[in-house]
Specification:
The structure is a single chain. A hairpin with a 2-residue loop joins strand 7 and strand 8. The strands form 7 sheets. The chain has a 12-stranded mixed β-sheet with strand order 19-39-38-37-20-32-36-35-33-34-40-41, with helices on both faces. It has a 9-stranded antiparallel β-sheet with strand order 22-21-31-30-29-28-27-26-25. The chain has a 6-stranded antiparallel β-sheet with strand order 11-10-12-18-13-16, with no helix packed on it. The chain is α+β, with helices and mostly antiparallel strands. Helix 31 runs parallel beside helix 33, helix 31 runs antiparallel to helix 34 and helix 32 packs antiparallel against helix 33. It is built from 39 helices and 41 strands. The longest helix is centred in the C-terminal third of the chain and has 40 residues. Belongs to the cation transport ATPase (P-type) (TC 3.A.3) family. Type V subfamily. It is an enzyme of class 7 (translocase). Interacts with MYCBP2; the interaction inhibits the ubiquitination of TSC2 by MYCBP2. Interacts with HDAC6; the interaction results in recruitment of HDAC6 to lysosomes to promote CTTN deacetylation. It catalyses: ATP + H2O = ADP + phosphate + H(+); spermine(out) + ATP + H2O = spermine(in) + ADP + phosphate + H(+); spermidine(out) + ATP + H2O = spermidine(in) + ADP + phosphate + H(+). One of its GO terms (biological process) is autophagosome-lysosome fusion.
Length: 1216
């Protein structure tokens, strides 16, 4: 038995070992197979599932293809090089061959917008050293599932070699282990807080130099190109290449004057464009460039050396100068304290206190976002430094160059998200249609000229000339006229735009999102009063906190802040200033502003009373020992203090009421806490709760400096609440009302409490008085329940309150007879927490929630961005208006983002307004609508102008004639250019209307309008020619094998009649209200039209021989007055017919409805744009949402859960 037991024991040991060995072998084989597959792979995805995701293909040089390419260059006269300029991917297709990424020397990158770019792989080598490259970058011992940690470097052989490429100022290095490229990382990713605190003591000169090879210089340089290089790049634009080809063609056809004028205008246009581009580049360069400076770098063991800031690398330990500096890198503080001006990032010039990094857990990872109170960001200004004893204020560099927060901002400006506006897509479709028409005209011309026996060379020139007629070279410039004028008008009103094409987007906005604080409401707060606790209950509002007895409540107000004295003035967060000033206490800091402070002398606060300064007894003084700075993620801040002549330390904490209450002992929180909080928040007041706790008497000062906040912020005593008022800006309510009148949906996206946000939304008119609000309370799953949603009706304020009874903005109650329970319009209010749960566990509800959501509270910056994208995904054109860095990403993502801040972080927003309120939104939208309508009008005019000339030329080609040089010049420059430019001079209409301008060029009404006008042109030109043909004195032009008959009656009649058609087209397509000012307001445009009409009439009716000779017109004086009068009648008749067609037929609502119905019947509707409307209709026709019920993620069905106390507190009605 013992032997059997031994055998069994032996088996028990060996069998698992065998399985372990097999499993290990399988894993090794799988890893080898994966690595082998990657080794052979010629493409991969980089930055997967991010905004910067792109597909990467490997290519390398091919001698055979290079030879063939050189032959193509010779055969095409170098024209194929233009193709490579416009289509970078052709470089790889024509000159290189596909290969594995491991052997590639060139990469073809395709982003998510199907745009291509090239990147060239480089190799660098340097002597070995520790901590330079990631182990996986050199050795190949990498786990496939783990990202490359490029902040760590290993020893390989005598030299380290690494491959990399740079794309949009981001470096990617080759990982030999995973056989793929990965983004170069730094200490901001995957680095533990404890490691930053304990492991970084400074790099040696050798290590720093070697890291510079990997990370590059610590600079943010915006290249300012020379005028010559800008000129070459501009001329390579397809538009100017087409211009050059057209000029050459006109010279070959002896149109010298016309070609010279177009060349001169093109050079002027190029010069203006180069000047503007250069000026913007210089402005951006000067804005982001930091002047060269030096900074102290630790070399270990308290050895310091001054080095240029451009040589800093991640891992360097720098010393911050006492008198401050401008940061050139992102660094995390490890010792000392800094007072920083972060207005560059936040737009707020309020000084911010930065404290040393602390870690709560050993595994806590450092994040610049989560630990921003400990991070000094590039571009921010250090005002002061404060340090302990003889030690220095030190920080560890975590990011450099374009990887810093400022660098990311500059990259966003240099490489903006491409626009995808339907108007521009339709414009390209229409140009292709014009190209097809040109092909038909060319075919017709070839047939006519071959029959007439014209010289082949002349046939080629005439046929190619058709292209320059039907696709006018000035078309792209004419389409931007409205945008240019709108941008100029906005600039005069203090609104600046860095992306002019965005102005057209503003004309099609459906919904506008607003931040609350500083945007809808004033920045400042007013202290309404405090609610201290006495005898386990609130003792009523105390309007003047300074009258409170000295105790924990007022001590908390005097100490729990991050205020500091700068230049003799108290500075800091506005809320902290209001709170502290209301106590009328005194704050003192030891020594001068920039001098050191020691542990024995912390910041001290004391009451400002007679006894404080005259009593012989020790005065009441409180020293602030430690600050736990405010963080939006924890929604609170706290301080550790010690009172003079008392033992032990105390903790004071303030923050969001619901968060503070959850950290306090339940018995210390009054039973009426929720009711009192609800009473104030529903009226729009901002409520801050305060709490207190006596700490362990054994806690020493050194322990207090190292303890983590979660070790002390619990079991506190609830002290009461402060109530502050955040008033609406006086312009907010009228602006919201105007947007509502224009049927523009308004949404609030804020970081404030949901009840406060609902109140402000009601007060400003976003939520009408009698509409109900449904709060979505979503909970994540736990051990006992799946994720759930409670649909709770928010309490409606009393009818008698002053905040909500403005009769000017009330709306009637809508009663749905089919769904009687829907007696009111409703709006969703969602907190950031609930929004996150919905996104994760109820994604199918997101479209409905964003369609009916009006208030989104407690939203983080990432959630604001996500909301904007969710709205866009269901077809909304979204605008966003905010004033802080928290809104920066959302501002960039919106179709039209307007920043009310002048911070550099807000420069990435398309619009920046010096108007400090939301009236700028109305200005931008009005100008956007005017610019869009102008662009449509200019495009339609240029299209019709092309067809008028196209019809004229084809008629003349038929009879072996053509327009003269000066006739082309008069039409193209004098008439078309002046009219197209001045057409955009009309200003925006004075108010927004519910109707939106059209967003598509291929909309049936637009196409029908253009086609109808073209038919009119053909009818009247042919009629005029037939009238000439039947004149008894008419003699057809003599045949000419050069096909250059210009001095003939056919040319004269067609030219004179067509001049009126150009003028009439400009008039009918330059529409005024409801999007632009009436045409009579645009005096230059109207005067130009009248002058052109008068000149054409003078030339026709009162022919003056020198003028006729100049324009190569036949002697009209030899004809009868009747003949000329009939031609004038034809011309005037066309003007009246065009106006009747455009204004009395095309603009009639009945016609628009019929065309719209036909479009939908044919299935031509834009399904994505109609998606949110379909969702709205579905909600209206259903009984959703299930108010008073609970929806579970597991069953995805509503269930009634009777919680009487909860429902009473929210005023909800249960629906079975």
């Amino acid at each position: 038995m013992e032997r059997l037991g031994d055998e069994d024991a032996h088996c028990d040991i060996n069998v698992p070992d065998t399985f372990l060995l097999l499993d290990s072998t399988d894993r090794m084989f799988e890893r080898s197979l994966n690595g082998y597959n990657r080794l052979l792979s010629d493409h991969t995805y980089l930055n997967k599932d991010t905004d910067e995701e792109f597909l990467c293909y490997g290519y390398k040089a091919d001698r055979c293809k290079e030879g063939l390419f050189l032959a193509l260059v010779v055969l095409t006269g170098g024209l194929i090089l233009l193709l490579l300029q416009w289509r970078p991917q052709m470089v790889c297709y024509l000159r290189k061959r596909r290969c594995s990424l491991n052997h590639a020397d060139t990469l073809l990158l395709q982003d998510t917008y199907k745009q291509y770019s090239l990147a060239f792989i480089e190799d660098k080598t340097f002597p070995q050293s520790k901590d330079i490259l990631p182990s996986s970058a050199t050795t190949g011992e990498s786990d496939d599932d783990s990202p490359t940690d490029t902040s760590q470097l290993t020893i390989s052989h005598e030299e380290i070699k690494f491959r990399y490429f740079d794309h949009q100022h981001v470096r990617y290095i080759w990982n030999r282990g995973s056989q793929m490229f990965s983004k170069l990382k730094d200490l901001s990713e995957g680095t533990k807080c404890v490691k930053i605190q304990e492991s970084y003591h400074g790099l040696s000169v050798r290590e720093q130099k070697q890291k510079q090879v990997v990370y590059g210089e610590n600079t943010i340089e915006v290249e300012v190109k020379s005028y010559w290089r800008l000129f070459i790049e501009e001329v390579m634009n397809p538009f100017y290449v087409f211009q050059i080809a057209s000029i050459i063609l006109w010279l070959c056809d002896n149109y010298y004057y016309y070609a010279a004028c177009i060349l001169f205008i093109s050079l002027v246009s190029v010069g203006i464009s180069l000047y503007e581009t250069k000026r913007q580049s210089v402005t951006l360069h000067d804005m982001v460039t930091t002047h060269a400076q030096t900074i102290g770098v630790c070399r270990g063991e308290e050895e310091y050396e001054d080095v240029p800031t451009g040589e800093l690398v991640p891992g360097d330990v720098i010393t911050i100068p006492q008198h401050g500096c401008v940061m050139t890198c992102d660094a995390v503080l490890i010792t000392g304290t800094c007072i920083v001006n972060e207005s560059m990032l936040t737009g707020e010039s309020v000084p911010v206190t930065k404290t040393p990094l602390t870690h709560q857990e050993d595994e806590e990872m450092y994040s610049p976002d989560l630990h921003k109170r400990h991070t000094l960001f590039s571009g921010t200004q250090i005002l002061q430094t404060r340090f302990y004893g003889n030690s220095k204020v030190k920080a560890v560099v975590v990011r450099t160059g374009f990887r810093t927060a400022k660098g990311e901002l500059v990259r966003a400006i240099l490489f903006p998200k491409p626009l995808d506006f339907k108007f521009y897509r339709d414009a390209m479709k229409f140009i292709l249609f014009l190209g097809c028409m040109a092909a038909l005209g060319m075919t017709y011309s070839i047939i006519i000229y071959v029959r007439q026996g014209v010289y082949p060379m002349k046939i080629v020139v005439r046929v190619l000339d058709i292209i320059t007629i039907i696709v006018p070279p000035a078309l792209p410039a004419a389409m931007t006229v409205g945008t240019v004028f709108a941008q100029s008008r906005l600039r005069k009103k203090g609104i600046y735009c860095i992306s002019p094409p965005r102005i057209n987007f503003c004309g099609r906005l459906d919904v506008f999102c607003f931040d609350k604080t500083g945007t809808l409401t004033e920045d400042g707060l007013d202290m309404l009063g405090v609610l201290p606790i006495k005898n386990q209950g609130f003792c009523g509002v105390v309007e003047d906190p300074s009258t409170l007895e000295v105790g924990p409540f007022i001590t908390c107000m005097a100490t729990c802040h991050s205020l500091t004295i700068i230049d003799g003035e108290l500075s800091g967060d506005p809320l902290d200033l209001i709170m502290f000033n209301s106590t009328k206490w005194v704050l003192e800091e030891p020594g001068k502003d920039t001098s050191k402070f020691d542990t024995i002398m912390p910041t001290v606060v004391r009451p400002c009373t007679k006894d404080t300064f005259t009593s012989d007894v020790n005065p009441f003084e409180v020293g602030i020992i430690r600050q736990f700075t405010f963080s939006s993620s924890v929604q609170r801040m706290s301080v550790i203090t010690r009172t003079l002549s008392q033992d032990g330390m105390e903790l004071f904490c303030k923050g969001a009421p619901e968060k503070i209450a959850s950290l306090c002992r339940p018995e210390s929180v009054p039973q009426e806490f929720q009711d009192i909080l609800h009473r104030y928040t529903i009226q729009g007041y901002r409520v801050i709760a305060v709490a207190h706790k006596k700490l362990d008497p054994k806690l020493t000062w050194h322990q207090a400096q190292r303890v983590s906040r979660d070790k002390v912020e619990f079991d506190m005593t609830f002290l009461g609440m402060m109530v502050l008022q955040n008033k609406l800006k006086m312009q907010t309510k009228p602006a919201i009302h105007k947007l509502k009148e224009a049927k523009i949906r308004t949404v609030m996206v804020t970081g404030d409490m949901i009840q406060t946000a609902i109140s402000v939304a009601r007060n400003c008119g976003m939520i009408p008085v009698k509409d109900r609000v449904i709060i979505i309370e979503a909970s994540p799953p736990d051990a006992h329940h799946p994720a759930s949603i409670k649909w709770v009706t928010a309490e409606t304020p009393d009818e008698g309150t002053d905040h909500y009874t403005d009769s000017d903005y009330t709306e009637d109650v809508h009663i749905d007879l089919e769904n009687p329970h829907k007696t009111q319009n409703f709006h969703f209010a969602v907190s950031g927490h609930s929004f996150g749960v919905l996104t994760t566990h109820f994604p199918e509800y997101i479209p409905r929630v964003v369609v009916k959501g009006t208030v989104f509270a407690r939203m983080s910056p990432d959630q604001k961005l996500q909301l904007i994208e969710d709205l866009q995904n269901i077809g909304y054109n979204v605008g966003m208006c905010g004033d802080g860095a928290n809104d920066c990403e959302a501002l960039k993502a919106a179709h039209a983002g307007i920043s009310l801040s002048e911070a550099e972080a807000s420069v990435a927003a398309p619009f920046t307004s010096r108007i400090p309120n939301i009236e700028c939104v109305l200005q931008v939208m009005r100008e956007g609508r005017a610019a869009l309508v102008t662009s449509f009008g200019c495009f339609k005019y240029m299209a019709l102008y092309s067809f008028i000339q196209y019809v004229s030329v084809l008629i003349l080609y038929t009879f072996d004639a053509n327009l003269a040089d000066m006739q082309f010049l008069y039409v193209d420059l004098v008439i078309t250019t002046s009219v197209a430019v001045l057409m955009g001079y009309s200003g925006a209409y004075h108010k927004l209307v519910p109707k939106q301008p059209p967003g598509s060029l291929v909309k049936p009404s637009n196409l029908l309008s253009i086609v109808a006008q073209i038919l009119l042109v053909i009818i009247f030109q042919i009629s005029a020619f037939l009238y000439l043909y039947y004149q008894p004195w008419y003699k057809p032009v003599k045949k000419n094998l050069d096909a250059d008959n210009t001095y003939c009656w056919e040319t004269t009649v067609i030219f004179l009649v067509s001049t009126y058609q150009y003028i009439a087209s400009a008039f009918v397509f330059s529409k005024g209200p409801p999007f632009r000012q009436p045409i009579y307001i645009n005096v230059p445009f109207l005067l130009t039209l009248c002058t052109l009409f008068a000149f054409s009439t003078y030339m026709l009716m009162l022919p003056y021989k020198p003028i006729l000779d100049f324009f190569t017109v036949m002697p009209l004086g030899t004809t009868t007055v009747e003949f000329r009068s009939v031609l004038l009648a034809f011309s005037v008749g066309f003007i009246f017919a065009a106006c009747i067609l455009e204004y009395l037929i095309m603009d009639v609502k009945c016609t628009e409805k019929c065309l719209s119905s036909c479009s939908h019947c044919c299935g031509k509707g834009d399904e994505q744009n109609d998606q949110y409307r379909k969702i709205q209709n579905e909600i209206e026709l259903s009984n959703w949402p299930p108010v008073g019920q609970v929806t579970y993620a597991a069953l995805n069905e509503p269930h009634v859960e009777i919680e009487e106390e909860l429902m009473r507190s929210h005023g909800a009605i249960l629906v079975n």
